[in-house]
What we know:
Largest sheet: 5 strands, parallel
CATH superfamily of the largest domain: Response regulator
Number of strands: 7
Amino acid sequence: MKKQLRIAIADDEPDILDYLQKAVVRLGHKVVVAARNGRELVEQCQVARPDLVLTDIQMPELDGIEAAGRIYQQVPTPIILVSSHFDAALIERAEGSPVQAYLVKPVQSADLEPTMALALRRFAQLRELEEALGRVKQLHGLLPICCYCKRIRDDRNYWQQVEAYIAAHSAASFSHSICPDCYEHRVKPELAAAGIGRG
């Protein structure tokens, strides 16, 4: 990572908080929040708007997983959880939260930078997916469609084919085929009229 990141750190153990701050600074980044509990972390992130959050899970007042959820709702940010042990129940809870990475204490400096890079990449992917979902949701609601030719009127009052409209408002693409009913009632008679398909 070349860019200097503004990082928020939270841990209720002063020694670990100090260690993480120094490790982040050694990597060339800036600590903008150093919190001792989850509530403090959430409040300070609202003001500081960090590029990345590194938080302990088990803290007083509000644990790291709950804090991560609140931070993501208020100031979407990549989040790395830190825990003193690899607990399956905690991992399961973390999977339901907007967390991009997980580190086990004691955190090694050599692990910190690649984990931060991974969290940033995963966060960017998550945001892209959320934006794509937002574009797909644009298709909800009433669409004016011609009952004869099935073209759709867009918001600029232009009529266009259904495929063109959906392709412009989502990530979907189309391949064309013929359903069995249309084959029986449209294609087969057309083939028969053209003299195709007879014995």
